[in-house]
Amino acid sequence: MPASTLSSSVDLTTCDREPIHLLGKVQRHGFLLGAAADWTITHASHNVVDFLGRTAEDMVGRPFRELFDGDTLHALRNRLQFATGHHGSEVVSRLPVGPEGQLYDVAVHLSADTIVTEFMPHAPGEAVDDALAMVRSLIDRLSAAPTPQRLCEDAARYVRMFTGFDRVMVYRFLPDGSGQVTAEARERSMEPFLHLRYPATDIPQQARQLYLHNTIRVIADAGDDGCRVYPSRDRDGRVLDLSDSVLRSVSDIHLQYLRNMGVGASMSISIIVDNALWGLIACHHRTPLVLGHASRLGAQLFGQMFSLVLQTKLDAAERRHDDDVRRLSAQVAAAMAPDRPAAEVLLDYAAAFCPLMRAHGAAVVLDGRLLTHGVAPAAEHIAAITRLLDGSPVNMIFATDHLSAEVPEAAAWTGEAAGLLAVPISRTPRDYVLFFRPEVIQQVTWAGNPDKVAEPGADDQRLSPRRSFAAWKTAVAGRSETWDRAQVRMAEQLRLVLLDVVLRLGDEAARVRDRAGEKQELLIAELNHRVRNIMGVVRGLIRQTGWSEDSAERFAEILDSRIQALARAHDQITRENWGPGSLTTLIRVEAQSFLVDNQARVRVRGDDMLLAPAALSTLALVIHELMTNSAKYGALTDQRGHVEVTLTPEPDGALTLDWLEVGGPPVQPPARRGFGSTIIERTIPFELRGRAQVDYAPQGLAARFWVPAAFVHRAGSRHQAAAAAAGTGAAGAGAGQPVAAPLRVLVVEDNLIIALDAETAFLSLGCEQVTLAGSNGQAAQLLAAEQFDFALLDVNLGPETSFPTAAALQADGVPFAFATGYGDASEYPAEMQAVPRLTKPYDLDMIRGLLATLTAPRG
User: Does residue 460 carry a pLDDT above 80?
Assistant: First the structure.
């Protein structure tokens, strides 16, 4: 085909026809061998000669055992067993290969009847355990994100820190097939892609199927056109299917696409929600980048766990919408007069639901009667709409953001109804509740023209991607905002409510005669609703290992609070180098977590006592459960009550702790003993061999606990001072007090989790920009390019110390502090002996205290 013909008749949808899983090429940073069931080599990539010194033609036809020792073949056979029955490859790490025993990470999977093995040189220093531990910690943090959007933003940031890519985007597929960058983390010098839209043709359909099939795809070098597999076809004329291949090369069109964007390497991690491709975590690097097995495995696991967390957040949002539907339905039903016509009652429902549905108007069509609310089309226009709906499937919610594409005359009244959501409420005659949205002229920012005809390649007549990525805006006329999944789900639930209203408000005899089918429909709809709920519960049971959906959320909340109580006790213990911890401080910190500024309502009497680490952790759970119960049922439920805690040393060195609730509501013994009651009554006797006595007196719960002397120490002056600080809400110098936060902060820390904690703390104190560096080299580059107002330096950065960075900061007059797990000041340079230090583990209050000390006026 002449190039001129190609450019005029072919667009990017041509990519949909390219068999990208049958290209017969692999990336050059590893090599591929295929084998038959008897482990005779049937395929080899031509670059095998670069790794093993033997050509692909020489390899094919030889037994595997001639080239690899018995241990290697044994390991591959075992791992192949793991790969049976699912998509993707299994990897054996650190296999010695070749005469020199070079270490390789080897991926193995079955492609039809061919055993496909892919060899990639092992990256020295990589540890799978470290990568998985890092992913686990990051997923714990992701779970705390309050919204799906914040979840995506955090995921982009974490993947970039974890993998080292220059740019990481969360890319969501929209209902029309196009995609939008909803979150982005990038190098500051790079052009932002956030909120850019990409046409559906940029990711062809067969590529989307592979993203669903194989959840991670890495392109190590966009300049690598790939190395062919020999032979190109087997004896039956088939090309080797590389759908599950780790090294599979990609389309030349896609490689050119990346090069046109200035991308040297890329990685895509699939986001799968409800077994469908929701989007991608897309990673770009400006230069080639080869990920080792550990990093790749960690990224893949992160994507899978992120998908589950995202689905949980989306499900939670749907449940909140369900609650809104039930609440609003109950309110309308309570105000409903029984003698009003059914159409008027339905219109009340529709009007009440307009804000939830984000609709500007509504209409009710019932028994030939039409009523409208808000901004709605004229009666003759609604008649045209109902004619369209009468031809649609029965009992189905109908939603469109482009009504004029279905009803051409609607182009003249897009101001009233460019978008329509229709809720059918009968079979025959067809009756509806309709919601309308007006036209919104959307300014959509596209990364290139979505309708631009693709250009032919310079060297041949193959299609190449668009060469211009300049953003341009196009107005989408005649459309409303898109009805999202949550609104369609609300409409389905509203339909059940409206069907019930229709059945209850009509004349009973006429209802039996004219609407008998609707009763069956109501039952079917209700049964469908209940079955769907049961399926949701089953899914929750599977996810939460045996708990229901609701109890799982409660279980997670309670478990999280108990873990936090233990964490607070653990922080105390570690700050004392795993020595005895202050019981008064423990009580005050626990009270602060419940009462914030009203913690004085928990009154501690008696001298502070120190508890051994095991006892402090035990008391942390007991105090937490007592505080929780008091806040839910006892003296701390309102402002009138308080709790008196009395610490009494016994002559034999033991400790008596009395807990007395005063001024709260009347107390009743619990109807059943839950796990919280078990903790209160049995933990100290079981774990410490002490005693516990709990009295549910009507005037207030009273409890007494005896802790054996072996766990009890008297507090010294330093601990008394710390307890006093905790009692006043200070919890350390400057805690709880406003500080003059520096605007730009540099954190030099080689542990990502600790660096993220520090970043979160500084941002919460009002810092505008927090920049992270993991080494002196990274810090030096940042100091040369940017100005900072303050820096926090981890003293030990793996094989080096941060003293060179500290010297540079001193020379520039930038204030800074050290963070360290060691207390020996003799190792610090003389000029840095007076630099403030934080002892690990540090928290928000310690950083606040540090900043307060630095900004305090000098006497």
Answer: no
